[in-house]
């Protein structure tokens, strides 16, 4: 994974809160990065953070996913604990989508941040017309060439997608994007008015985050550049025309299995908003 010593101040830039446009107040100094909190809305974010060019280098690095779920996932039929969890999340999340829609699987599903395409492949298997977007060339290539999935490699804003998706998924993605307000606005423009948005992210008011401080294993300041709470998620989503309608924090729920510091959220378009 990321070597903290690999980045210098020259790779970084200062940013402001994406909601309030004001600089944050320092919480943890992790040179060359800083963990800061917006004095107005309490959104936690990284500033200084990696510049866009440095971020792209990070995601293009074939080693980016190594050691995690995806490393196991690219080996067929892996029975590693990480892969078992991955399968539990996938099944739990597909079931959550069906429950939220109160409909059987089927229709158009978009996954933003598709990684190696494991969830998308399962969604296709369940009956969805599945499309994806992935920034990492390594991940996108695997999804396209090995799994035969329809995955665009690049930023969501640049993807040639037809709007009107029944479901848009963003698993562990919103904490990575340059500007979450702009990200959720793009998602809002792609989801149908009666569609559903489902996502997962770490949350900074989770017990591990509060107890462990700078030793929180999910802090990773190079790639996790926004740290949300259910409250700041609701603010961000509302700014983008989406209402946060459900938050699953229980680590026993299949959609969130074993995750003590992450949540699964469900959001729906606010009528009349765009
Ligand atoms: Zn703010």
From TrEMBL:
Span-the-membrane segments of this chain are none
Single annotated GO MF: methyltransferase activity
Signal peptide region: none
| Keyword DNA damage applies | no
Q: Does the keyword Methyltransferase apply?
A: yes
Alphabetized UniProt keyword annotations:
Methyltransferase, Transferase
List, in alphabetical order, the GO biological process terms annotated in this UniProt record.
methylation
Q: Which Pfam families match?
A: Methyltransf_23 (PF13489)
Do you know which PANTHER family this protein is assigned to?
Answer: METHYLTRANSFERASE TYPE 11, TRANS-ACONITATE 2-METHYLTRANSFERASE-RELATED
Annotated protein name in UniProt: Methyltransferase domain-containing protein
Q: Which organism is it from?
A: Geodermatophilus pulveris
